[in-house]
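Supplementary Methods, section 5.1.

A reviewer requested that the exact input to the structure prediction be made available. We therefore reproduce it here, unchanged from the version used in the analyses.
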Amino acid sequence: MKLHSLTLLFSLLILFSCNSTSTQEGDGSGSMQIAVIPKGTTHVFWRSIHAGAAKAAQELGVNIIWQGPQKEDDRQMQIQVVQNFVSRGVDGIVLAPLDDRSLVPPVQSAVNRNIPVVIIDSDLNSDIYKSFIATDNYEGGKLSAQRLAEVLGSKGKVIMLRYAEGSASTTKREQGFMDTIKEYPDIEVVSSNQYAGATMEKAFQASQNLLNRFPQVNGIFCPNESATSGMLRALQTAGKTGQIKLIGFDTSETLLQALSKGEIQGLAVQDPFQMGYLGVQTVYHVINNEPFEKQIDTGVTMVTAENLSEPAVAQLVNPELDKWLDE
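The structure derived from this sequence is encoded token-by-token as follows.
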């Protein structure tokens, strides 16, 4: 019986380690433990948040523990990660909730244990957290609609490829886009109810299906990095880059190269480095009973081939990640 229990425990530990990524960093001088939990650990966006959090930890003399699911559709894994940190009794949690509803109970558990929670990137369907630090996602969707209308000459057929149900941040981007594109009477949205899914591969398949269904489309909006990457690949495969205008969200080396080559006409860019930095800084202030802001807008910028070389934009799209991450 004892051997069976040990075997089961070992199996669970292996399963957990295979489905999440955990690293601990800081300057080693502080005993304060802050858990930083992203939606996923695959995309460049989360690496930028990780770097910002690591910078704040070093400056404040605290330790951060970075852990989250690999894929951004693994709600149960993120719930387990939060519950694990609550059980460990960390001093504070910085969380990018993968789902605005299903993460409410584990956050409530943290609050019940007097562990302050700061929410970053995507809102929670509750006000139990201490602070919310994120992009104005509705504004990002609005900027994207305006840019797509601009490159289309305010006319044509367009597609919006949604990201995933339950993701508050991308839902607001999608709403901002749809509300704003209505201001252009000669632009027709021919599809807005399809979802890309959490990976670039799923987004690629969804994008190919849409391009096959709507061969006469003139423009496309995708609300996050993986959806934009999947659509870009589908356009490249179909030989339609440049011909069909693409506006995306977030950056990666591939997306920036495509922007420079004219395969993408605009990227709504957040500041994830600042998001991670302010998340750790804010929860630190909360723990120490110091003043903090209840809500912080970290900004969004429409990056194009024309403004890519401007110093402020260049710094935004190429933050010094390697300086703060030991990989």
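The chain has a mean pLDDT of 91. These observations are discussed further in the main text.
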